[in-house]
Specification:
The complex is a heterodimer. By secondary structure, chain A is an alpha/beta fold. Chain A is 38% helix and 21% strand. In chain A, strands 2-3-4-1-5-6 form a six-stranded mixed sheet, sandwiched between helices. Chain B starts with a strand and ends with a strand. The chains are: A alpha/beta, B alpha/beta. The interface between A and B is medium-sized, with 23 and 27 residues.
Chain lengths: 133, 183
């Protein structure tokens, strides 16, 4: 597994596309892809939004932690792109707090299982873990 | 030589940026982009003025149109005898971006204009330091204007980083070098 993180609009997807020569249909976006697609896609963009949708769907839906474990198990070669969202003021809204927490936990698990973790800032990649081949 | 210094709020960006120009022998200009509106802005400006005092900067207040800036003293001079050997510190891109975007009650795309400004400053100086900010790390969905601003500043930062010889992110005062092509 490979993780790419950084703030919004820091150049994560562009970096992934160039570095791994990803084709358009090899990237699914957490904002609107089928949740099942996460398990087969080569690259999942906005995993933090996958977490958000799992929380919004509520009861009857797999909890984010279990979902992420299954993701790690079933798609261990995935390139996962995730916004860093934990900065700033803790949100007043409970659902926003829950989303931040669950995204943070998912990110820690994905980083733990990734051979390489890259963080983008101003479009520049910094290797936080492993090496960039 | 152009250095881009980034980081979150109050991470020591200004102090580090000034230090880059500490040993600089030529004339030094400080371009302040923050408009002095409100108590907090005035307090921040006073604090930064205090930090710069005695460091030999000539302050220029310039809130927009950096691409058309003429340094004091350069106006009537021919190109060869301008302040071309000077040092320039611009602070901060986040203010500049907001000032350029939200003008005359409309939202403009400021990216091209700001980058043109940075290239202009690079051309008229021998040491340029640009301070910017990281605003896209809180995961909050903002209304349209703010969302557009976060997107624009992200784009400005990426393009400025491409143009810069050096990019440094400050973390609690510790400079982390993200790019260095300094000869």
């Amino acid at each position: 597994m490979m993780m790419i993180t950084g703030g919004a609009f820091s150049g994560k997807l562009e970096f992934a596309r160039k570095h791994f020569e990803l084709k358009e249909d090899e990237v699914v976006c957490g904002a609107d892809c089928g949740l099942a697609d996460v398990f087969t896609a080569k690259c999942v963009d906005h995993y933090e939004l996958v977490v958000r949708r799992l929380l919004e769907n509520g009861a009857g839906q797999e909890a984010p932690e279990a979902f992420t474990e299954r993701f790690i198990r079933e798609n261990p070669e995935a390139i996962v792109i995730m916004d860093e969202i934990g900065g700033g003021i803790i949100p007043l809204e409970k659902s926003e707090r829950l989303w931040r927490e669950q995204t943070g936990r998912a990110g820690c698990r994905i980083a733990e299982r990734s051979d390489t973790v890259i963080r983008l800032c101003c479009g520049l990649p910094a290797v936080l873990k492993g090496t960039l081949g | 030589m152009m250095t881009l210094v980034t980081g979150g709020a109050k991470c020591g960006k200004s102090h580090y940026s000034e230090r880059i120009l500490d040993g600089f022998a030529g004339k030094k200009f400080y371009i302040a982009t923050m408009e002095p509106y409100g108590e907090e802005a005035l307090a921040a400006i006073a604090r930064h003025r205090g930090l710069r005092a005695g460091k030999g900067f000539t302050t220029i207040e310039r809130y927009t149109d950096i691409d058309e800036l003429i340094l004091p003293g350069d106006g009537g001079r021919p190109a060869g005898v301008r302040n071309s050997g000077c040092g320039i510190l611009l602070e901060c891109t986040a203010n500049l971006c907001a000032n350029e975007m939200f003008r005359d009650g409309r939202i403009c795309d400021p990216t091209e204009k700001i980058l043109r400004g940075f290239r202009h400053l690079r051309d008229i100086s021998s040491e340029l330091v640009i301070v910017t900010n990281e605003v896209g790390n809180d995961g909050i969905s903002y209304e349209e204007g703010t969302a557009a601003y976060i997107r624009a500043l992200g784009e400005v930062n990426r393009l400025a980083a491409q143009t810069a010889d050096r990019v440094v992110e400050c973390v609690y005062g510790i400079p982390v070098t993200l790019k260095n092509q300094r000869k």
